[in-house]
Design brief:
single chain; mainly alpha
Length: about 260
């Protein structure tokens, strides 16, 4: 299994609650405020490295695969990549343990936070396997969820359209209108399920919102953009653009400010 059998996506009951609480201790809004600057830095660096000088970029590619473990399959490549990441994370956990013993801030990053978290009922620590599995999940979900959310603001293509496209819930559901979500109280429960709902709701919801807002800020202030020719959609297994939803981008040119060299 690429993500691991102790990640929150594979757990239920008390184990799920314990791991979810541990992740939320890092992903809660008051903690994430400390990382907005880092997100901003990473987004700017990514755009400078991968967007500048290009006329076309791909918003999102597929990361899912059929679980057939043969040497030439994407799943096999994923397993091998997962093994390398796990080895790296185990070494990193050892480093973070040493830092904590020397008095490091237990909330300086996700791993130190998970190492410092104790179960509220019995004081149990997370095992190293649980930490590794859930860090890999966060890395994967941080790419997948945020990229899909950003792409959604360019073109609506959710598969959860039984409620998302219900005009009795959302007026003109095909219209791009982010302001419809400003008043959360007006949205019926379980009608907008991009991040799930209830006790199984994605714990990275607030993280994805902040990351997406930072990305969109740079997208709309530094570039003009438009969709390339419609490439169609496929299931992989999610409903995704078959070619990653390519867009044409043009850097914005601002007139010089008078008196400023």
């Amino acid at each position: 299994m690429i993500l691991g059998d102790r990640c929150i996506a594979e757990l239920c009951g008390q184990d799920h609650k314990r791991i979810r609480d541990a992740l939320l201790s890092f992903l809660k809004p008051e903690s994430l405020r400390n990382y907005v600057g880092k997100m901003d830095e990473e987004v700017r660096m990514h755009m400078e490295m991968h967007w500048q000088g290009k006329q076309e970029i791909t918003m999102i590619g597929g990361i899912w695969s059929v679980p057939i473990n043969l040497p030439f399959t994407r799943f096999n490549r994923g397993l091998r990549a997962s093994a390398r990441v796990r080895n790296f994370l185990m070494d990193l956990i050892a480093e973070k343990r040493t830092e904590l013993r020397k008095g490091a801030d237990p909330h300086q990053d996700l791993i130190t936070c998970l190492l410092s978290t104790r179960d509220q009922n019995n004081g149990e620590e997370m095992t190293e396997k649980e930490i590794v599995d859930n860090v890999i999940l966060v890395l994967t979900a941080g790419h997948d969820t945020s990229a899909i959310l950003t792409t959604f603001l360019i073109r609506i293509f959710w598969t959860m359209n039984m409620t998302h496209m219900d005009d009795s819930i959302f007026t003109e559901p095909s219209k791009l209108d982010p302001t419809r979500f400003d008043n959360q109280a007006s949205i019926p429960p379980y009608s907008c399920i991009a991040f799930g709902a209830g006790p199984q709701m994605c714990p990275g919801y607030e993280f994805a919102k902040i990351e997406s807002l930072v990305t969109i800020h740079y997208l709309v202030t530094q570039f003009t953009w438009k969709l390339c020719a419609d490439t169609g959609f496929s299931r992989n297994p999610r409903h995704l653009s078959s070619k990653g939803l390519p867009i044409q981008i043009t850097p914005m040119e601002y007139p010089p400010i008078q008196g400023v060299p």
